[in-house]
Amino acid sequence: MSDSEGATEAVDALPAKAGAGRIALGLALAFLSAVLLFIMWDYSLGIWPLVFVAFVPMYIAAYRVLPRKLAPLAFGIAAFGYWLTMFMQGGGVLPPAVVWGLALLLGVVWAVIGIWERKFTERTKYKWFIVQLPVLWVALEILFQNNLIIGSMYWLAYRAAPAPELIQPVSIFSSPALSFIMIMVNAAIALLILKWMDRRWPDLVDVEIPSITIKWSAITAFGVTIVWVATSLVIFAQVSNQMGPTVRVAAVQTGITNTTSSGQLGEGGAQGTPEDNARNDRLQAQLTRMTLDAAGQGAEFILWPEEELNYDVRVGDKAAWVGALAKQTGTTIASGFMPQAPELTSPNLVAVWYPNGQMSTQIYAKQHQVVAEGEAFETGNVDQVYETSFGNLGVIICFDHEFPDSSPRTTVAAGANIMAVPAIDPYTLSHLRWQSLVFRAAENRVPFVKTDVGFDSAIVDANGVVKARTAVDNPDGTEALLVADVNIGPGGAPFTQTGSFLFGGLLIAGLFARYIRQIYLWRRERQNA
Fold it and tell me: Is the pTM of this model over 0.85?
């Protein structure tokens, strides 16, 4: 007997009313969704196409196998699997108890939210089934995108970063639109399976799915998906053909051992001690060597990490060597630095040196604090754009690129056609944060160069194609030099001007409309009872 035949007989044997076996099967299906949602992340197995089917077992469990009162568990279990992977990638910052506790908490939240899902579906006879969960899930993504704990790195759409050819309409509709389509495809597949199950096991049916609903749900979901893919391929070809001149860029990843890193992951203390001066001498030698190597490979722009220099480059002549190095190599250099202690109101800054050796008077200050890492400082609010020989350089810092409607977009809107992102990430995020960088590039149609101090540097072209990246799991980091050609611009993406406000506003309005409708139906039932 095959496995599929055995599974069919197991379901055939289920009683119409949920017994222990049927409940166990429903919970197993929910856990299957949790597993699929877990292994699709790059952090685990990276099987990202599972995003289009991972919710299907959850739907089957919630709407047919589990009894109505236990159906919310399916939503909670599936969400637990998704969020567990998310928080495990923050293991460099969060202790294990917090990781599991947060995932469990969000699983409970989704179980509570799920209390009303099946009831609304059955009251409306599956009319809104394919958009019901997408509206809820993605509206919550948008509502909480500006949190200062994880930013937007949890967005479902980001899992498709390995396929830039398929994500291009985010430059029109925003990234949450792709999250919406992903869940809608899951719902459409689940609806077809539910209808098939109803014909095979009619005793499982509480509310029949109208055939017309099946027809139009399938046409809508798969039609929208086909249009999205076709549009994406067209945009990808156009952006790839219309990109501006090529510039060779370099990301200098120094590693974070005591012998090479002065930033010390944001501590910025003990400036001017003999030990600190010796460390800075070693770092200067390393940066000089790597920068000369990058310039020797033809790089015109060279980026150093966040807080790489733990002294104020504006004070005295301590940083004169950087200008001399820029002049010697004929390159533009950008580096993170820290102000003179104890003046730490804005401790996270970036300076830019031009090929003539002069440092720009414009200094960029980080705009988003990482609360999970204890950052608390006066943030910047100015989008800095630097005119260079190769294009208009925009600079943001690390966590800033997780906020699509903020500094990445507004800096491009201010005129930048190439973006630099010096960063310091926990090593456990090395398989995660490159994905949101791909979406920032595709959304705005400009290249991004990100340099991490030791773990996840990346160079992404304006069409979202990753030209080079690192993914280092070692907490000590690794020295690496990425050199690649990217194309300036072309920019001009509608998203740069509109952000996700239009799509997000419509989605949130839809969410409120759904619950208003649900309350109305519930009250009408009570009145007619």
Answer: yes
